[in-house]
Design goal:
thiamine pyrophosphate, 22 strands, alpha/beta, single chain, Transketolase_C, DH_E1, 11% strand
């Protein structure tokens, strides 16, 4: 059952009555799911519950104004809305609560997110776009409060791009930019900076966004007086109200229990946003939270008797029921009978969901118990294996941990035996792990045919007339080719538009392609990322520019919690192939030193991290990624734009492969591994080392994530028998990751005649000025002496101690 999204003012009374009762049915169904869901947690069948009770009626009104092609970016209490648009049923609600890993049973996340985190499927099983205009869409929720806000901005901005930029294929994505992005948030979370940053950006950009604030006066146990100035978010946002000659928001207020006024308010908001592309804030007040924040505690602990009595009286479902009776739409007896039927439907749906979840587990349990019976019969350790088998068999509601843990422990008792049953057990464990592990681990990166790893290298070509030019011209002309080839491509960031970025890598692009495709953005890194995520989720190919690598920290939470996990948390059913452009490495000072690579890299697994040594390599990465369906961070060398590079003849066509290292100098004595601007220092040191008879081989990593997929570094180590990683990051930062990849995954330790070394920056960020860099990060002399010391230890007679 779902709500009627087409509100018709000419409905007959009978039709109107049917629609109202349909809405009431949804409201009561959602409430019963919340009530029964809490019981399932408290009885141990589910681990945790957070529900949408108390928010049912405004979500019904929102669903009526929500059309095909629209997108929701909400938070974890929107279950009634999802039911109302037909994207969530009773069985699916409970499947999410139980963590069912079958995508057919639990289409929101296949058990990867806790219940209450909703999404729709934008992609088919092969990673291809569905027709988003033929469905109602919800971007995948995340738990961090206000984390849904930046993405909302991009989802709304996509409509503006589709409405005003010509040449884009909009077939599956937009109908003339008429789609609205709908955001929801709890009143307490409006205290987060991400909320304010997004509200400001939406007012500046004038995008079709409707933002609902569900206001129940509390944030867990903390009252609004500790959350919000004046205890009223719409009051303090009055300055955003649009006026005759000034852009801004339309700000609306409505009581969350007033069914007819809610419908009217949401229809008005939708019309403004859809037709005028003006953002709207709807402050939905006087809501309740009947079961408190979550199953972790009771709201009776922090609400007094007067508040609890008020909540019982002004519960939106109670008020809706009273309104139905007062308007002669149904009698009390009619509604009581309906409620009784709904309760049974929810109980039956819960039972069906539990059966769907538990039946495969019981089957797997029985299969292992039978196998252990045969293993036990053939083993001298029968008594111990029988105990494991019997303990497993007695578990009435097994989980997969119980099953696999038992099998692995049983294997220990037959490790010295040679029976056929031991081999069966070993094969069972391997097969079970291979089958089950992907249910929890797949789709961190794209598994489609458009994965960036499938795109082959195309080398840059040169002619006799190829000139040495400032490297910025290579990247600029390559962007020109990208924007010409891909009408859906656009770039935005601080200073990216009018002046063509701070290093002139976009010189002239705004004049050529317009302000919507090459645009300036305010100083608001989190929402720059959010713009990119939302637009990429709607079929555009955005490049979000963060001016310097150091400023990535402002956007790191969004990158880590939202973008990096998107394919994973939807099990491959949503994607956002956003390219994040930034620059860093080897500049002066604390704030432009690019010294946080290890931290960034470890926090954004799910996003490729690319560190090209020059602009030609960087341009090749952009060309590769534009043909893929994955997000990536590209860190250009900040001190490389004015260096000379030859201009390729195949601009826009050459491609740098991901995960492939490059040997840029051959040698036989030691393998030196590095990336980015530090490579130029390593190259100079290698020249000086050669003068004293040390021949170093230099490998450019190029791609930190993925890392050396062909295992070429170990081949070099097998030749030189020595390894050093040189990194401008802090000790134990990216260098620890690099060393782990080479030693642990590539097993390079087998070939080493000397201890593997790392040479990193100091633990602090560089002091300002050239001397700050010299005394803070690896210098030519540092590299020379570190390598020389390795050779001294190996051959002290040829390389006497330096100092």
């Amino acid at each position: 059952m779902k709500a009627n999204s087409e509100v018709n003012k000419d409905l007959s009374f009978e039709d109107f009555k049917t629609e109202v009762l349909n809405d009431y049915t949804l409201a009561v169904t959602s409430r019963e799911c919340s009530l029964l869901g809490r019981r399932e947690v408290l009885t141990g069948k589910a681990k945790f519950g957070i529900f949408g009770d108390g928010k049912e009626v405004p979500q019904l009104a929102m669903a009526k104004a929500f059309k095909n092609g629209d997108f929701r970016s909400g938070y974890y209490r929107d279950q009634t809305f999802m039911m109302a648009i037909g994207a969530l049923n009773i069985e699916q609600f409970f499947a999410g609560l139980y963590g069912n890993t079958d995508l057919k049973d639990e289409p929101m996340s296949a058990g990867r997110q806790m219940g209450g985190h909703f999404s729709t499927q934008s992609l088919d099983e092969n990673g291809n776009w569905n027709n988003l205009l033929e469905q109602k869409n919800s971007s995948a929720d995340i738990s961090p409060t206000a984390g849904q806000m930046p993405r909302l901005l991009g989802l709304a901005q996509a409509s503006k791009i589709y409405r005003h930029v010509t040449g884009i294929n909009t077939t599956h994505f937009s109908n003339k930019g008429n789609e609205v992005a709908w955001g929801t948030i709890g009143n307490a979370s409006t205290s987060e900076g991400l909320f304010f940053e997004t509200i400001n950006a939406a007012g500046v950009l004038q995008v079709p966004m409707v933002m609902s604030v569900w206001d129940d006066e509390y944030g867990i146990s903390v009252h609004a007086k500790y959350q919000t100035t004046k205890e009223n978010i719409s009051e303090i946002l009055k300055g955003f109200q649009r006026e005759k000659d000034q852009n801004g928001f339309e700000i609306l207020r409505v009581m969350g229990w007033d069914y007819p006024t809610l419908i009217e308010t949401y229809q008005k908001a939708a019309k403004i946003a859809r037709e005028e592309h003006v953002p709207v804030l709807i402050h939905v007040q006087e809501l309740t939270q009947p079961q408190g924040h979550s199953t972790s505690g009771s709201h009776e602990r922090y609400k007094n008797e007067a508040r609890l009595a008020w909540e019982a009286e002004f519960d939106c479902n109670v008020k809706f029921r009273e309104w139905i009776i007062a308007n002669n739409i149904a009698t009390d007896d009619d509604l009581s009978a309906l409620e009784k039927t709904i309760k049974k439907q929810v109980r039956d749906g819960k039972k069906a969901a539990w059966t769907a979840f538990s039946s495969p587990l019981k089957q797997e349990q029985n299969e292992l118990v039978a196998l252990l019976e045969t293993v036990s019969a053939a083993s001298s350790n029968r008594v111990f294996i029988d105990k494991l088998k019997n303990d497993l068999a007695e578990i009435s509601e097994p989980i997969r941990k119980d099953i696999l843990s038992t099998a692995r422990k049983a294997l220990r008792y037959v490790v010295h035996e040679t029976s056929a049953t031991k081999q069966e057990l070993t094969a069972w464990i391997t097969n079970y792990t291979d089958t089950i592990q992907p249910k929890y681990s797949s789709h961190l990166y794209s598994q489609s045919s458009k994965s960036a790893l499938h795109i082959k290298e195309v080398k840059p070509t040169y002619s006799d007339s190829s000139e040495d030019v400032d490297a910025r011209l290579v990247i600029r002309d390559n962007f020109d080719a990208i924007f010409s080839k891909y009408p859906e491509a656009l770039i935005f960031g601080e200073d990216a538009g009018h002046i063509g970025d701070v290093n002139q890598g976009l010189e002239g692009m705004q004049e050529k392609y317009g302000e919507l495709r090459v645009s300036d953005a305010g100083i608001r890194e989190a929402t720059i990322l959010g713009q990119g995520i939302g637009m990429a989720m709607r079929g555009l190919r955005p490049i979000a520019e963060i001016q310097y690598l150091d400023y990535i920290l402002y956007a790191l939470q969004i990158m880590s919690d939202d973008l990096a996990t998107l394919q994973y948390r939807t099990r491959g059913r949503q994607k956002a192939p956003l390219i994040i452009r930034t620059r860093g490495h080897r500049l002066e000072g604390i704030w432009h030193s690019g010294s946080q690579m290890g931290g960034v890299m470890h926090l954004i697994r799910g996003i490729h991290v690319l560190v090209p040594r020059n602009m030609t390599k960087a341009a090749g990465f952009y060309n590769t990624l534009m043909e893929s369906d994955e997000p990536a961070l590209i860190v250009e060398c900040l001190n490389g734009y004015r260096l000379k590079e030859k201009m390729p003849t195949n601009i826009g066509e050459f491609k740098t492969p991901l995960g492939v290292v490059e040997t840029i100098r051959e040698g036989a004595d030691i393998t030196l591994v590095s990336y980015g601007s530090t490579l130029r220092i390593v190259e100079q040191a290698a020249k000086e080392l050669q003068e004293v008879g040390i021949h170093a081989e230099i490998i450019d990593i190029q791609s930190l994530l993925p890392f050396d997929i062909n295992h070429d570094i170990v081949k070099s180590v097998a030749k030189t028998n020595r390894l050093m990683v040189i990194d401008e990051d802090v000790p134990g930062g990216a260098s620890a990751f690099i060393l782990s990849e080479i030693l642990d995954k590539q097993n390079a330790y087998k070939h080493l005649d000397s201890k593997p070394e790392t040479l990193t920056a100091k633990a602090h960020r560089p002091a300002y000025g050239t001397d700050g860099d010299y005394f803070s990060k690896p210098s030519v002399e540092d590299v020379f002496e570190a390598v020389y010391n390795v050779m001294h230890e190996a051959n002290p007679s040829s390389f006497p101690k330096l100092r």
